[in-house]
Design a protein that fits this description.
- This protein is of the alpha/beta class.
- The chain has 11 helices and 12 strands.
- It folds into 2 domains: about 5-80, no CATH class; about 95-355, Dihydropteroate synthase-like (TIM Barrel).
- An 8-stranded parallel β-sheet has the order 10-9-8-7-6-5-12-11. Strands 1, 2, 3 and 4 form a 4-stranded antiparallel β-sheet that branches.
- β9, α7 and β10 (about 260-265) form a beta-alpha-beta unit.
- α3 (about 115-130) crosses α4 (about 150-165), α4 packs parallel to α5 and α5 (about 180-185) packs parallel to α6.
- The protein is globular.
């Protein structure tokens, strides 16, 4: 467990970012030539549930105390390093993952795409709308949901996976599952990426399957299980606790000589209340110091309704887009969403604005 944590902050965009980096007054963030930063926040653990923060210009790092300087410089190398590609997908600009739930009970679109034909039509729509990845799930993980048997889960999704891969052989398919059996079947039938919402905690065989198949995967954070996760979740500091969880898992995985890309997802709404979710989103750039691409899934989540109250809508596109654009401003690389076209539209406009003189 660390004493110091490094978060890049004070961001610049587009041509201003490029100008500052050229003058050696800022660093590009994670190889993204549209985002740069010239400050870091160092969060220091004082004792349990008590942390303090200090902010430093990047040219002040070498003036820090020995231990603090060592940690900051080590983290900065990871923060500025170019991220690995996800298969052939470069992550130096934002990418959209389209959500495709083949379930009768998912929180937002349960039952809509349970039919194989509807699911394939939706996949085509999301691909045509700008999705680079389609994330397929056969088990609802909404708060309070019960576990689905592994064979039943596979039966729900197998034909959809095969058909989408046949029609769109170049699209990256991600499989949203907690079960090693489903992972193995998926990887044998066209799945490219494993997205384990349990963070490898549900099924102890999961990592062995991922490693044996040399598959990229998404490391999520979830406190508890879908059935129990929203029953009074507690943290010392949600941001730091999740960082510690990721760092411990990544170190374990690296010891297993795993060579493929690891993407981290802090799991908005998975064992978090409104304040937890807001702290994660507002300080999400902390996770860049893990050296991994960041994925965030805020689409249609309940925290939006908790903020907007009487202005809530069924698809929550406005709240989703606001959170996506904030994540984009913090250098997040991947966004898991339902309304692909609308979110892609927002990202394209945002990027055009920041690159205009």
């Amino acid at each position: 467990m660390r004493k110091y944590y490094t978060r890049p902050c004070n961001f610049y965009y587009g041509n201003q970012a490029k100008s500052l980096v050229k003058k050696k007054k800022a660093f590009f963030l994670a190889g993204n030539l549209n985002v740069a930063f010239d400050q870091i926040e160092i969060i220091e653990r004082i004792k349990k549930k008590f942390f303090k923060s200090n902010f430093y210009k990047i040219n002040e790092v070498n003036l820090l105390s020995s231990e603090k300087k060592h940690v900051a410089n080590s983290d900065l190398k990871k923060i500025i390093s170019k991220r690995k590609s996800l298969l052939n997908l470069k992550l130096n600009s934002p990418k959209i993952m389209g959500t495709l739930n083949i379930t009768p009970d998912s929180f937002s679109d349960g039952g809509l795409f349970f039919d194989e034909s509807n699911a394939c039509d939706q996949a085509k729509l999301m691909i045509d709308s700008g999705a680079s990845i389609i994330d397929i799930g056969g088990e609802s993980t909404k708060p309070g949901s019960k576990t689905v048997g592994q064979k039943k889960e596979w039966e729900r999704i197998k034909k959809v996976i095969k058909n989408i891969k046949k029609k769109f052989p170049k699209i990256i398919l991600s499989l949203d599952t907690r079960k090693s059996y489903v992972m193995k079947k998926g990887l044998e039938n066209g799945i490219n990426v494993i997205n384990d919402v349990s963070g490898l905690n549900y099924d102890k065989k999961s990592f062995d399957i991922i490693n044996s198949k040399k598959a990229p995967f998404i490391l999520n954070h979830m406190q508890g299980t879908p059935k129990t996760m929203q029953t009074n979740p507690q943290y010392d500091d949600v941001l730091i606790d999740i960082f510690d969880f990721f760092e411990k898992k990544i170190n374990f995985i690296k010891k297993k000589k795993y060579k493929k890309i690891i993407i981290v997802d802090p799991g908005i709404g998975f064992g978090k209340n409104l304040n937890h979710n807001l702290r994660i989103i507002s300080k999400i750039s902390l996770f860049h110091s893990l050296g991994c691409p960041i994925l965030i899934g805020t689409s249609r989540k309940r925290f939006i309704e908790q903020i907007v109250t009487k202005f809530d809508t069924s698809d929550r596109t406005g709240g989703t887009l606001a959170s996506v654009l904030y994540g984009l401003s913090q250098g997040v690389q991947l966004f898991r969403v339902h309304n692909v076209k609308e979110i892609n539209q927002g990202i394209l406009v945002f990027n055009k604005i920041i690159n205009t003189n």
